[in-house]
Amino acid sequence: xxxxxxxALAGAVAREQAMANIANNLANVNTSxxxxxxxxxxxxxxxxxxxxxxxxxxxxxxxxxxTDFSQGPxxxxxxxxxxxxxxxxxxxIGDSSGTYYTRxxxxxxxxxxxxxxxxxxxxxxxxGQPLQVNNPNSQNITIDxxxxxxxxxxxxxxxSIYQVDDTANLEKIGHSLFRLGxxxxxxxxxxxxxVQGGLETSNVNMMEEMVRMIDTxxxxxxxxxxxxxxxxxxxxxxxxxxxx
Length: 244
Prior knowledge:
elongated; alpha+beta; 2 domains
């Protein structure tokens, strides 16, 4: 009986973790470049241990929380410094703390002509250097699909797009930014398409997340009912044991 109670507890805890994941996805449904996380579960005991250790009662837990890197819709903004990647890849940005990868393409030009994110990271070119333009005050900036940056018709630089050998090596660090782990390697893409005047929105589907939330909440409530039933049975057994 105790094994069954702990099995229900393990299920309830796993569903609480899943609910926190869903809540984070929903909180970022309007965050540009955000990539949703998905949860998978696993049984903690396998094979003979299910019968010999817990007499057929198993335990479960969250196996992985993985990021879904599928592309979100592109929203037109008509801001010439809003950029979206149509297809695979990431913008590479950096500052004194290191380099990062993002699909969030909202940039600005500072007084030194550097293309910056809202958080102050510089957009890096193919050589890993901050992309800089000579006339930061010009209103005539064009960025073509290949990433060529032109000011008043003159080419100032080129935006490079990068892919990684395995997205599992990307660590989500907030603000739609990812850090590449030591085991990962970046791959400069030769072909890509940049959309000027648009931003990639979150790939979170609100309706799907709401359905998952309802389902997860029901399962969480069911586990609590099971735990309550086991507690009630334990109390009755204690009463029976004290008779006479």
